[in-house]
Amino acid sequence: MFLKGRARLALVALGWLMGAFLLAPTLIVFPIGLNDSRFVVMPDSLSALSLRHVTNVLTEPTWLTGVRDSLIVAVSTAILSTVIGVAFSIGVWRVKARWTMALTAILVAPMIVPPIISAVALYHMWTAIGLYDTWIGVILAHTIVAAPYSALTVSASLALLDPRLEQASRSLGASRLRTVADVILPNIKGGVAAGALFAFIMSWDELVLTLFVANRVVYTLPRKMWDGIRENVDPSVAAISALLVLLTISVLAITHFLKSTDPVRQSH
Amino acid sequence: MFLKGRARLALVALGWLMGAFLLAPTLIVFPIGLNDSRFVVMPDSLSALSLRHVTNVLTEPTWLTGVRDSLIVAVSTAILSTVIGVAFSIGVWRVKARWTMALTAILVAPMIVPPIISAVALYHMWTAIGLYDTWIGVILAHTIVAAPYSALTVSASLALLDPRLEQASRSLGASRLRTVADVILPNIKGGVAAGALFAFIMSWDELVLTLFVANRVVYTLPRKMWDGIRENVDPSVAAISALLVLLTISVLAITHFLKSTDPVRQSH
Amino acid sequence: MTVSRRTGHAVAIQSLCKSFGAVRALDDVSLEIPAGEFISLLGPSGSGKSTLLMAVAGFVDCQEGRILVNGQDITRVPAERRSLGVVFQGYALFPHMTVAENVAYPLKLRGVSKSDIARRVDTVLDLVKLRGMGDRKPRQLSGGQQQRVALARAFVFEPGIVLLDEPLSALDKQLRSELQFELKGLHGRLGTTFINVTHDQEEAMAMSDRVAVLKDGTLMQVATPREIYELPNSRFVAEFVGHAAFLDGTVAATSEDRFVLESGQYQFPIPDTGRLRAGDEASLVLRPERLQLVDRSSPEVRPSIPGTIIGSAFLGPQCVHVVQTDFGALKVSMPSSGRSNGLDSQKDVAVVWEPDAAIVLPRYA
Amino acid sequence: MTVSRRTGHAVAIQSLCKSFGAVRALDDVSLEIPAGEFISLLGPSGSGKSTLLMAVAGFVDCQEGRILVNGQDITRVPAERRSLGVVFQGYALFPHMTVAENVAYPLKLRGVSKSDIARRVDTVLDLVKLRGMGDRKPRQLSGGQQQRVALARAFVFEPGIVLLDEPLSALDKQLRSELQFELKGLHGRLGTTFINVTHDQEEAMAMSDRVAVLKDGTLMQVATPREIYELPNSRFVAEFVGHAAFLDGTVAATSEDRFVLESGQYQFPIPDTGRLRAGDEASLVLRPERLQLVDRSSPEVRPSIPGTIIGSAFLGPQCVHVVQTDFGALKVSMPSSGRSNGLDSQKDVAVVWEPDAAIVLPRYA
Question: Would B203 disulfide with which of B142, C1, D33, D326, CB 3.0-4.6 Å?
Answer without folding.
Answer: B142
